[in-house]
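re: ur question from earlier - yeah i can do the single chain one, its not a big deal. heres the input i used so u can compare w yours
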Amino acid sequence: WMIREKAKNSYLFIQDDDSFDLSSSDDRKLSSYSKFTIIKNVTFFLFAIIVALVTNFLPILEEEPCARRCLSILIFVSILWATEVFPIYITALMIPPIVVYMEVYPSNNNIGVLPRDQIAARLISKFFSNAVLLAFGAFTMSAALTKYQISYRLAYAILGRVGNNPKVVMIVMMLLGWFLSMWISNVASPVVCVSIARPLLQQMPHTSTYAKVLLLGIAYSNNIGGMTTPIASPQNIIALQTIQSTNTTRGHISISWGEWLAVSIPYSISCILITFIVLWIIFRPKIEKVQDIPTKQLDPITFHHVFVVFVCIFTIALWALNAQLIDYLGSVGITSLIPVFVFFGLNYMDKQDFKNLEWDIMMLLAGGVMLSDAIDESHLLHILGLNISKIVMHTSKWETLLIFGSFIWLFGNFISHTVAAIIILPVIAKVGCHIGNGNCLSGHFILFVIGSVLVDSGAMALPVTSFPNAQTFGEKDKKGVNYLSSFDFLKTGFLIGFLEIGLLMVIAYYILEALGF
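and the output i got, formated as tokens:
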């Protein structure tokens, strides 16, 4: 009924036109669509509730009721995200009230639970986290690059030399994202890639399969690019810190850049090729030639254009150097506010530009951060990690990496890559030391940590999984409709992830072993 009424009201100005008649077949189509959508959404919503309730009352985790309740919330939210019963940013905003009412935070002495007001205060403190502020700054830069036609100039400079072959265009964009992620991190690089592709995308409707393939290719290649160097992603830095903080028989050791690149480059290139093949086979874009970017009269380059580029490059450089300048910068979230107050404060962008930022994606990321914190504080992930430790104590090195890689990949899909690395990598290092009976090196803990963090970056089955996914998910056509849906990520991200785990075991594992890890 709502869809039908909205359609009628939208076209009142042509209701006297004989060519417009919603009283017959069109009306029945809208009504049929509305009924189908309502039935489908109600079915999935009831299914999510039933599965969550069954999980909550199963005889599992009886000594950790907070973890059990958190598991039921995780299942409930994941089903809603996957089926899009509600817009996914609305589902994300359901997380804090559900977490508060379900009381998934144990008290500080692990006796009982935290009062609801303290849970609420903790969740609110996570709302504008580094991840959300990072997105705020990135979306502001992306909007500025578009407003001043800089993204269009970049697109014409790069894509204008590539040609019109759709496969070549896609491969070039994927390799560009992969390469940029090496040096400016896979947080900043998707902003650049999407800005370059936007003039091409805006020629396509949201139903275009090639637009989907191109955006997914950008997202996944930037995720994969996060494997490549120690500074390419936050989880890589966490892996280095985990290795360096683990005391071995030779003291505190590390892995060199050369050793990291020797593993990551062949593995990530293989992942890029597999990703391209899978995306093309699944979507089968019916396109023989990519349209030329339409030429138009561009404003002459002025100081304003140069200043916008300078601020963006300066911000990206600070992101890349955040680990080295942490005592001065504070965090990447604070750094991300630089383009916001510069562009809006100096009237390079106005109030309408501020309203047009991707607030839905920022709410999505905020919900993901709060869910991640609940999973951590409820001890759910710690419990699962300990149980896996017991399983791998008597398995081979190859099997152990397969188990750890699969575990961190699975949870990396539902919580952020960074949070998965923070929680799971120390457990993996500790298990490696146990396997070596206290000798961490003979327990191959470096092999397990590096192998696991590589496949952690390959977790990309939901829009909320990583910043490259969120960035591309927020891209809309001229009518304001998203090119991608959650299901697009689901049906491709899981399959590509399984293949990446396979490549980990046949490429990265043997390179790490050859390096003596």
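The chain is about 70% helix and 0% strand. not sure if urs matches, ping me
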